[in-house]
Amino acid sequence: MTNLLVFALVNFQEEPLKVTGDVGSGLIYVIAAYAVVWLFIFGYLFSLTRRQANLRREIEALKQAQAQAEHSPLAQAEENRPASISARQLGG
Amino acid sequence: MATNTKYLNQAMPVAPGKRLDWPQILIWGMFVMFPLSLLFVLIAPTDVNLQYSQRIFYFHLPANIMCFASFLVYFIGGIGYWRTRKRKWDIVMVAGLELGLFFTLIGILTGSIWARYAWNTFWTWDPRLTTVTIMMVVYVAGLMLRNAIDDPARKAALTAAFGIIGFVNVPLVYFSTRFFPRGLHPVIFGSNGNASNLQGFMNVTLITCMIAVGMLFAYLLIQRIRLEQMRDDVAALQYAYEDEE
Q1: Is the pLDDT confidence value at A83 over 80?
Q2: DSSP letter (8 states) at residue B202
Q3: What is the pTM of this model?
Q4: Contact A48 B50 (CB under 8 A)
Q5: Measuring CA to CA, which residue among A54, A63, A42 is closest to residue B227?
C-alpha cells in the first residue's frame, strides 16, 4: 500500500503544472491539504464508530443468548435438581 | 481456552460514573478548538516566501507531533507489556500503533502536497521523508504481523517487540534534518528552526491547532482503547456462553 502510494507520487511528479493565480500563491494546495486532513479524520472516526457499533451489537446478542439459555427449561431443571445429583454426575 | 480467559481478565478495569467523562469533554473542546483553529488559519498573516502554502504547516506539524506521541504511547505499552505481560499494556500498544499510523499518513500526505508547491515535486528521497517512510513501513509490518497471529499472548509479545525496536526510528526521523543538513526538509525546532521564524499571530494559530489536534489525539486514543475493551467483553461473553452450553 505504502509502496504503491510512493510509486504513484514519484511518477506523478513529472506532470507539468498549470500555473494560475491560486496555484502561484499556493491556495489550491492549502485547500487540497485540508481536504485530505478532514477526509482522514472523518474516515477514521467513521471506522472506529462502526467497529464499536458492531461490537456493541455482538455484546447485546450474546447477553440475550445467555439470558435465554439461563431461562430455558433445561437450565431451570438443572437449577431445581438437588446439588448432590448434578447433570455431570448423571452423564449429562 | 482457560489461558485465554485468564489473559482477558487482566484487561483494564472500567468503572463508569467514578471518573470524569473525558470523551464528552474532549468532544466539546474540539467543537470549540477546531472551528477556531480553522478561522485562525484563514486570518493568519501570509508568509512572504511560501505564500498561502505555509498554512498547511499549521496542521502538518501537529499531525507529526501526534504521530511521535502515538509511537511513544506504543513504546511505553511495549515496555509495560514486557515487564508485566498484562493485557492492559497490549491494549495501550495497539491503540498507539494504529493512531501513530493514522497521524503519520496525515503528516506524509499534507507534507507531499506542500512539497509540490515548495519543491515542485510531491516526493523526493530527502533524509526526513526517507526516514519517515522507513518508520512507517516498520510499523505497518508490525501491524500486519500482529493481525496474522491468533494466539493473544504471542500476538502481544510480537507487538511489544516491534514497539520497542521500532521506536529507534522516531528520534532518527526527528534528528534527520540535523544529521543531514543538505536535505530539503527544513529544521523546525531550535534556534535556527523555522518555527522560531513564526511571528505574532502565526504562533497563536500554531498553538491553537496544536491544542485542537492534541484533543483529537486524546479522543481517538480513548475510543481505540474502548474498542479493545469491547473486544475483550465479547470474548469473555462468548467463553461464558460456550461454557454454559
Answers
A1: no
A2: H
A3: 0.81
A4: no
A5: A54
C-alpha span between B137 and B131 (Å, rounded): 10
Side-chain half-sphere CA neighbours of A65 within 13 A: 16
Q: Say what percent of chain B tops pLDDT 90.
A: 66
Per the DSSP assignment, residues forming a β-bridge with B51 are B47
- Are the C-beta atoms of B128 and B185 separated by less than 8 Å? yes
Q: Is B242 exposed, middle or buried (0-12, 13-18, 19+ CB in 10 A)?
A: exposed
Which of the residue ranges A71-85, B80-94, B118-132 would you say has the lowest mean pLDDT? A71-85
Residue whose entry in the numeric block shows the C-alpha cell 506521541: B69
Point out which residues pair with B47 in neighbouring strands: B51
End-to-end CA distance of chain A: 53
Could you tell me which of B158, B151, B225, B160 has the C-alpha nearest to residue B3? Answer: B151
In chain A, the residue whose alpha carbon lies closest to the alpha carbon of B110 is A33
8 Å CB contact of B53 and A30: yes
d(CA A84, CA B232): 35
User: What is the C-alpha R_g of chain A?
Assistant: 30
Q: What one-letter code names the amino acid at A12?
A: F
Residue A16 CB partners (closer than 8 Å, separation 6+): none
In chain B, residues 129-148 whose CB comes closer than 8 Å to chain A: 133, 136-137, 140
Percent of residues in chain A assigned helix, strand, coil, to nearest 5: 75, 0, 25
**Distance (Å, rounded) from C-alpha B207 to C-alpha A68?**
55
